[in-house]
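quick q for whoever's on today - can somebody do inverse folding on this one?? i tried earlier but teh output was garbage lol. tokens:
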């Protein structure tokens, strides 16, 4: 597949992303009541979204959370869950600053939280811990599908059509700084400059697109093929080799969107329950019955 074809595909995806970011800003301003932090009866869990993320998408009666069905499922097990809202297309420092403020607001005093972060969200948390002093608030960081070593797709943001779209978006007030942080070269420097905090346990969930990608998420077929040619096995966006950081909790067959329950037939709730059980083995939760995506292993 030629870089120009992939750049065109990226152009379409960026158009959708920019339109989504604009719509989300309008919907949040128009429909969302003022947010108030909830008290912490026990150590809480914070969910952190990736690029173009949101807490909940609302449109003409349609409602769907970024982490589809996950927060209600975990709350039913007695786990306080908070979902961060970060600038959808902002840079890592910009998103990390918003995240640090959010976590401090929901974890006052000496309280600490566990964090599960999807995709770029994992980089935001790592930056906030290392640079913004969040190590005293985060007990554990679990990343899912996070490009700790970058993804070749980000390099297409500097090719032909993508550059034009980014310039147009900048003129309209829709930034795309996030792309610049996700290249393999930028992430090599990031990993040198952003050390782990010994007070925090780091772990990761490693994902690969399964054989049914053509049926479950055909929108990722082109990007999956490109990343496979450049960097090997991947989840449709991020190479498997880029996703490992800290302990490997699970290795699963799930594309980048199935990881949050957004591919056809995907139910991500069992995965998140399994992660919480691995982090808190003393927690009495319902017996885990795997459904797609299904972890092959999970270690505490």
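ok took a stab at it. sequence:
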């Amino acid at each position: 597949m030629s870089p120009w074809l992939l750049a065109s595909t990226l152009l379409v995806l960026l158009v959708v992303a920019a339109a989504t970011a604009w719509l989300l800003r309008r919907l949040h301003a128009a429909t969302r009541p003022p947010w108030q932090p909830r008290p912490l009866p026990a150590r809480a869990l914070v969910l952190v979204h990736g690029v173009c993320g949101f807490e909940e998408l609302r449109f003409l009666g349609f409602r769907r959370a970024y982490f589809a069905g996950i927060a209600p499922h975990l709350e039913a097990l007695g786990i306080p869950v908070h979902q961060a809202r970060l600038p959808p297309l902002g840079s890592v420092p910009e998103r990390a600053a918003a995240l640090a403020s959010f976590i401090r607001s929901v974890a006052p005093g000496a309280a600490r939280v566990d964090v599960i972060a999807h995709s770029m969200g994992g980089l935001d948390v790592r930056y906030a811990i290392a640079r913004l002093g969040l190590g005293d608030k985060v007990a554990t960081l679990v990343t899912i599908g996070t490009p700790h070593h970058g993804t070749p797709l980000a390099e297409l943001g500097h090719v032909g059509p993508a550059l034009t779209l980014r310039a147009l978006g900048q003129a309209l007030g829709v930034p795309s700084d996030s792309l610049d942080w996700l290249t393999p070269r930028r992430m090599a420097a990031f990993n040198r400059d952003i050390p782990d905090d010994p007070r925090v346990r780091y772990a990761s969930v490693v994902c690969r697109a399964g054989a049914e990608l053509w049926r479950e998420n055909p929108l990722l077929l082109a990007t999956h093929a490109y990343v496979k040619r450049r960097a090997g096995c991947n989840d449709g966006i991020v190479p498997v080799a880029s996703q490992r950081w800290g302990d490997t909790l699970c290795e699963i067959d799930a594309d980048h969107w199935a990881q949050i329950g957004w591919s056809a037939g995907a139910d991500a709730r069992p995965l998140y329950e399994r992660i919480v059980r691995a982090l808190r083995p003393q927690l009495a939760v319902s017996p885990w019955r795997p459904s797609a995506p299904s972890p092959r292993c999970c270690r505490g």
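fwiw The radius of gyration is 18 Å. also Residues 21-41, 159-175, 285-300 have pLDDT under 50 and may be disordered. so keep that in mind when u check it
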